[in-house]
Please model this.
Amino acid sequence: MNYFAIRSLPSSKQMMLKRALQNLRVPSESKRKRISGTVYDKTCAIDLCAEASGAHRKRKREQFSIIDKNVKLKKQQTAKDSNSVDKRVASMDYISQLPDTVIHIILSLLRSTKDAARTSILSKRWRDMWISFSVLTFDQRTFQELEGVQSMENCNEVFKQFIDKSLQSHLDRKLGIYKFVLHLTSYDPALVHHMERWFGIATENNAKELGFHVHVKGTRRYILPKNVFAAEGITGLRLQGCKLETCSIIKLPHLQKLYLRNLRVDQQIIMNLISSCPLIDDLRLIQCSGLSCLDISSLLKLDRVEVHCCNVLKKIDITAPSLQAFWYCGKKQVSCKINLKDCESLKRLTLEDSRMTNNQFHGRFFSFPLLEKLELSNCLKLTNIRIGSHRLNRLVLRGCKNLEEAEIDTPNLLSFEYQGDKFPFSFLNPKCLKEVKLSFAPMEDRKLKLNLKSEPLWFPKLREFLGKFDHKGLKLVVRTSKVIVSFYY
Model:
């Protein structure tokens, strides 16, 4: 190929030849002698340039093929990785492998029935769990509002028919019942017979939780159907506004949670009920009349006890080595003697007792070496107390108006909350505190209101309290009247 032949080539070919000539290196004479079977001269150099352009295109094709192979390998590797992730996720789905009863407990802890229903899309097992989890709640007041029934008599009849049809539909589809709850607005003798049948259907279908709530009007009350006391499979029973009658046969061997609210009870009935349910771990008595003494010694798994506003209750005696939480809220007119000395595992104690004295408090508090949370509310007779504990990490004091001095020696205290009109505390070692919430009542002294330069009476002690901190990380919130001030140290 001569010069004119090269000039006749297209410009793109000429540029390609030019680059090839620039990159081509003709070996020296000594190197040519070492290469056998090949003759190099200027003419063959031009021919080699033409071949070099083809080699250049071949190298590009090879590079593209290598890139394609790399892309394919990466896609295959990504697919393998995703498959391995799916396998790992599938192998790590331990929740779906839990027993049915445990999954039902998980569903019952969700905020609403709709949230529980959404779990049915996870898998076939969760769909089956949701079907067997059915929660049937019949609220007469809500039903009346939705249906717009004005007459109470008509409302009761329509409401009764609605429950009958719902239960029958449930039985026709062979669905289980996990929870059955009935809310009634008032007493109606016509519903007594039907109630026993409804609760019978629920227990025969292995319901785990039963609830019966009545809004009390007047003196007439529903008597709890006796078949509820023979529901051997239930684990939770919540009763409000009804009446318990003496029952000779109580078969609730699996009952764990017993909530009684606004009930007229007999001393012997409560004792028989508690003694017949050895697995109770959560017991709550709220506004129950007729109970003068609460004596518990047979519940070895008891974890939580709450007693609120039981009018004539004068004595609480609990022997429960596993008790973790106790909450008592008493009436101003009645003094209640509380004995928890044999509950050494107690970790959370809440007392709202306006008649509790300093000595009574010290006798209760220092009996619990493992206590982690203490809350005192409206304890009006407390004047001078000492709180010393190495395990206490949360302390709350509200409405203790007559408290003049409180010595607090809690080196591991993390949270402190106070509500009152002064600052009667002396902290010996507050260095671990992370959060302090103080709420002071508005000043009543007119002179202090008029003199804006005057400090509140509690301010010097607050300044002294803050002077004991030599570390960062404290959150301080101070509320007084409508003013809220937050500090971060």
